Amino acid sequence: ALRLSPHFAPAAVNLADLYRQSGRDEDGVAVLREALKLSPDAGGLHHALGLALVRLKKSDEALESLRLATELDPDRARYAYVYAVALDSQGRRPEAIEVLKESLKRHQSDRQTLGGLINITRADGDTAAALRYAEQLLKLEPENPNLKQLIKALKDADDQGSDDQGAQ
Q1: Cα dist. 64→19, 24, 58, 61, 68 in Å?
Q2: According to the model, what pLDDT value does residue 167 have?
Q3: Within 13 A of 9's CA, how many CA atoms are on the CB side?
Q4: Which long-range contacts (CB under 8 A, 24 or more apart) does 75-78 make?
Q5: Can you list the residues of the chain whose pLDDT is less than 50?
């Protein structure tokens, strides 16, 4: 497919994925870099490259590719989510939260974005924010027992935090 149409980005992504499955991520990276020379504004190529670079433990390059994917294709909530997770894994939690908040403005019903915000704000110690996002997600998943249990735990933790502040 790439020989017939070198600008066809999905073919490059699929070939890179095939290389990934056979343990040849370096070859996948080469394919994606070549494709990006022809289609530098293809968010999907940047996203796939970022994932390959993460697997190769090239964090700085991976973050740059994931950032570009997010900027070039803001309609893909998944790209922002993956970028935020990568930022958080590099100790850049405030940036990760901001990426997810921006994505949530465009994708108010995206479960993955809300889940990311719940997890990252909770890990950041912002129980009140995690609770807000969990309650927003509950509107989308009203029958989710795990989510109901999480909300209860967050409320209990938030109440405990309020009690501790009141005692001071």
Answers
A1: 22, 21, 10, 5, 6
A2: 47
A3: 15
A4: 75/106, 76/43, 76/47, 77/103, 77/106, 77/107, 77/110, 77/112, 77/113, 78/112
A5: 167-168
Query: One-letter amino acid identity for 69?
Result: A
Q: What is the pTM of this model?
A: 0.89
For residue 149, which phi and psi values (nearest 5 degrees)? -65, -40
Asked if residues 96 and 64 have their Cβ atoms less than 8 Å apart, the reply is no
User: Token pair of 141, please?
Assistant: 């998943």
Question: Do residues 54 and 28 touch, judged by C-beta distance below 8 A?
Answer: no
Amino acid (one-letter) located at 68: L
Distance CA 87, CA 62 (A): 10
Q: How many CB atoms lie within 10 A of CB 57?
A: 7
Amino acid at 73: D
